Structure formats: C-alpha cells, structure tokens
Amino acid sequence: IVGAGISTVLSQGLAAVVVFIFYFSGYFTIKPKFNQLFKKFSPLTKGALKACLSQGIANLSLSIPGILIRKLVGKSADSIETYNNSIAGFHAVTRWALLVHRVIIGFITGYLPAASYALNGKNYKRYLYLTLHVNWLSFAWGSLTAILTFAIPRQIAMIFSKDQGYLKWATPMLRTSNSGAFFVFAQYTVGNMLRSLGMGLMAAVMGTLVHIVGMVGFILLLYYTNKHDAVRLMAAYPLSALFGLVVGAAFIVYPYYK
User: How far apart, in Å, are the Cα atoms of 243 and each of 56, 87, 112, 211, 235?
Assistant: First the structure.
C-alpha cells in the first residue's frame, strides 16, 4: 500500500514539475515570471476562478463521496472477511471509474477553450459543431464502458486481482456502479457548455447539486434503507448520473434558448 501511494505521488509530481518548467520557460505562448506569484491578483482573477469553480467541484466529487461510500461499505460488512473483500471490490470500482471519468474530462478540457474562442469570435457554427462532438464523443465513451461492465465485469475485475473472495464482490459492484455510464457525460459537458457561455456561477451551482448534494443524498438514502447490502450502495453512481442528465438539461435549456 505504501509503495503504491509513493508511486502515485511520484508519477503525478513528475508531471507537475515538467508542466511547471514548460510554463515558466514560455512553451505555452506566454512566459510569466516567478515573482508574479507573489504580486497582487489580476482584475481578471475573480472571473477566471468563477469560471473554473464548477470543474473544481467536479474533481472533488471523485474523492469526497468516495470517502463516505467507502465508510458505509465497511459498516455494512458483518465479518472481517466480508469487510476485506467488499472494500477490495469497491477499490476496483474506483479504479474503473477513474478510467471512465478521466477520458471524458480530457474531452471537455479540449472543448472549453476552443468553444469559448469560437463563441467570442461569433463563429456560432463552429461552436455548435464543437458542442455536438464533445457530447457524442463523451456519450460514446461512457456507453462503451457501460457495455463492457455489463458484458464482462468479472474479466475486468480480474485485471486487479484474481482472488475469489474479492471477485465475488467486485463483479456485481462493477456492473452496478457503471450501469449509468450512458448518462455520465452530461454532468461534465453541460457544466463546460455553461462555462463557455460565461455562466461560471450557474455551472458551479449545477456541479454542487449533481456531484455533491445528489451523490451524497443517494448514498445515504441507499444505506439507511438497507444497511447490509454493499452492492446496492453502488447504485448511487448510476442514480447520480441520471440525476445529472436531468439537472443538466434543466440548466442548459434557458441559456441556449436565450
């Protein structure tokens, strides 16, 4: 466990150092000075923070609800063996979820600056094409991962471990947790569509509702209606994804109609 933690820190730290060096060397169009980090904020800082707040909430959502659901998975166990296997199964869920979500985050990271530039340049046709493509690509990726976890959940679980006790839990957990991946794109793409329109605050409100309030609410609802079924707790993920689709549609209708 310690070795895995150190390897994660080193791999992410190395990437951060490389980006930091490139940034201050002028490889990304501008060449800032290090002492600017200690000067007063730019008048544009507030707007930039508001625009990025929703993505920050989305990133936090990958960790905060996971802490709660991990605790409740442990509390639902009736023995040490069940505890160990169910927690191991949940770890497979979190690893697979990272693969699902990070690819979609990669799509929307490329979408936002291009879409904002097209909109500000009044190139509405390009903006609509970009918006269409980021949504269908994200939908296609989520759908592919959902189909895989429906069709071969055991084989996917075996990527991480072949222990039979672990597989007993990981297989249904993977299938249940990723069954809503068809809809998971909406909670990311709609937030960035709002940000591209300059509606960062609205995107942050939507992100809070979907990623924090909705997810935590579904987790608690599922746990307190059945405290001894860890697999059932995984349904919080598809319920949250479906909730995100509904809320995202509600939030994007007015700005696009306007």
Answer: 19, 26, 23, 10, 12
Q: Report d(CA 247, CA 242) in Å as an integer.
A: 9
Q: Please tell me the distance from the alpha carbon of residue 170 to that of residue 157, in angstroms, as a whole number.
A: 6
The Cα 122–Cα 132 span in angstroms is 17
Helix (H) or strand (E) holding 46: helix 45-61
Residue 79 is given by DSSP the state S
pLDDT in tens, 200-211: 778 888 888 888
Separation of alpha carbons 58 and 215, rounded Å: 11
Count CA within 13 A, CB hemisphere, residue 145: 28
Token readout for 37 is 């980090």
Instruction: Give φ, ψ of 30 to 5 degrees.
Output: -105, 160
Residue 30 three-state SS: strand
Query: 55-110: per-residue pLDDT in tens?
Result: 666 666 667 788 888 899 989 888 898 899 999 999 999 889 989 988 998 999 89
- Whole-number Å distance between alpha carbons of 158 and 56: 32
Picking from 239, 206, 209, the residue whose alpha carbon sits closest to that of residue 222 is 239
In contact, 120 and 82? CB cutoff 8 Å = no
Residue 189: name the closest of 236, 235, 130, 254 by CA.
Answer: 130
Q: What share of the chain is helix, strand, coil (3-state, %, to 5)?
A: 80, 0, 20
Low-confidence residues of the chain: pLDDT under 50? none
Dihedral (CA of 67, 73, 75, 80) sign: negative
Cβ pair 100, 145 in contact under 8 A:
yes
